[in-house]
């Protein structure tokens, strides 16, 4: 009997607890506040949407991404890749299909968490900035200005880039390895452990400073231009592009393309310097970096300023834009696909899209 009383008491308490929890969730919903379980689910959906967006967009343009990095870091005295078409043909001829996608696995392993954190960080930063902005202005219906969106995007970019930077560093090295390169890195884990053992933990963050500086205009302008163009199109309704306050997938692709073009053009020189700094200290580096024969020489930079100075002095200012053409061809569809995939996946998962909601 005692055990039955205990079981009955436990069952009653469990039922009461369940009813109380349901009542609390109903109260949260009636007050317009998401219950903790709903908040967690929403966060997971946002992260999944961001991760899918990053993986899909990068895989779609993987050959151009690899060519861009090869053009950025190749030895100026031993040119193998002289342009976009020639470079792609050379990769296809010497390495085949696998060469086109070399480093893409590492890139996806990095970009999926990077993109997930970036999109989620942007939404949270936007909500926080919008809340403060409304408090300061006293306008409850106020919306984010382009400058505030740029700030939110910059915060998101720095957080995401810093969290996944070691993956980006080893991805750069894996990407420039060719069939004739010394077989130093066999994969992501082997590259990470080798760099840690031979160069120390600080080596995993080589080029971090120009990345931070570059990510502010790049990611910030991406989000600012994209969101501002969307808002303007919805309000102005030019050329009949908007129906029922919704933009078509084609229009959103165009907005993403414009955002990517602006952001990458402004920040590109910093991306070149970052890649070159990542190659410094690489024992038995790929020949594309060191050159061949008499022209063979290791890269030596003491810092970001030194890298800028030596690059301009030895190769001219145009060297800061090496790989810009394939990057421009790549970044426009990549950014556009990322934004649209993110919104489509969020719509499928049923996540609210607007910051002001």
Mean of the pLDDT scores? 78
Per DSSP E runs of 2 or more residues, the count of β-strands stands at: 2
Q: Helix segment count?
A: 12
Q: What class would the helix/strand composition place it in?
A: mainly alpha
Uncertain segments are 1-35, 353-357
The secondary-structure element order is HHHHHHHHEEHHHH
Which shape, going by the Cα principal axes? globular
Strand neighbour order, sheet with most strands: 1-2
Number of domains: 3
- Percent of sequence in beta strands: under 5%
What gyration radius follows from the Cα positions, in whole Å? 25 Å
Distance linking N and C termini: 54 Å
Helix content: over 70%
Major beta-sheet overview: 2 strands, antiparallel
SSE layout:
Elements: H1 2-30, H2 36-60, H3 62-73, H4 84-100, H5 104-137, H6 146-176, H7 188-199, H8 208-236, E1 242-243, E2 246-247, H9 249-279, H10 287-290, H11 304-315, H12 324-349
Antiparallel strand pairs: 1-2
Helix pairs in contact: 2-5, 2-12, 3-4, 3-12, 5-6, 6-7, 6-8, 8-9, 9-11, 9-12
GO cellular component, one term: mitochondrial inner membrane
Subcellular location: Mitochondrion inner membrane
Protein name: Mitochondrial substrate carrier family protein B
């Amino acid at each position: 009997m005692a055990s039955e009383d205990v079981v009955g008491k436990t069952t009653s308490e469990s039922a009461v607890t369940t009813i109380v929890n349901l009542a609390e969730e109903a109260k949260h919903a009636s007050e317009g506040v998401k219950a903790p379980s709903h908040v967690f689910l929403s966060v997971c959906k946002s992260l999944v949407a961001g991760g899918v967006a990053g993986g899909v967009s990068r895989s779609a343009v993987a050959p151009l991404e690899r060519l861009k990095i090869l053009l950025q870091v190749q030895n100026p005295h031993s040119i193998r890749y002289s342009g976009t078409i020639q470079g792609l043909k050379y990769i296809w001829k010497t390495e085949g299909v696998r060469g086109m996608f070399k480093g893409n696995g590492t890139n996806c392993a990095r970009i999926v968490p990077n993109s997930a954190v970036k999109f989620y960080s942007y939404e949270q930063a936007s909500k926080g900035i919008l809340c403060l902005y409304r408090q300061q202005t006293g306008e409850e219906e106020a919306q984010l200005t382009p400058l505030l969106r740029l700030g939110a995007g910059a915060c998101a970019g720095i957080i995401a880039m810093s969290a996944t930077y070691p993956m980006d560093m080893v991805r750069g090295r894996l990407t420039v390895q060719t069939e004739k390169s010394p077989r130093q890195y066999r994969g992501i884990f082997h590259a990470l452990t080798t760099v840690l053992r031979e160069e120390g933990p600080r080596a995993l963050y080589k080029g971090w400073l120009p990345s931070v500086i570059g990510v502010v205009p790049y990611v910030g302008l991406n989000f600012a231009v994209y969101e501002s163009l969307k808002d303007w199109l919805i309000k102005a309704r030019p050329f009949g592009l908007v129906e029922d306050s919704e933009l078509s997938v084609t229009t959103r692709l165009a907005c993403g393309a414009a955002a990517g073009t602006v952001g990458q053009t402004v920040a590109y020189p910093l991306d070149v310097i970052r890649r070159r700094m990542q190659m410094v200290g690489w024992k038995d580096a790929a020949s594309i970096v060191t050159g061949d024969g008499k022209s063979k020489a290791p890269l030596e930079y003491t810092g970001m300023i030194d890298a800028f100075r030596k690059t301009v002095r030895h190769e001219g200012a145009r060297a800061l834009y090496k790989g810009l053409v394939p990057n421009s061809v790549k970044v426009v569809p990549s950014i556009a696909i990322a934004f649209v995939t993110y919104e489509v996946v969020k719509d499928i998962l049923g996540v609210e899209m607007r910051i002001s909601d």
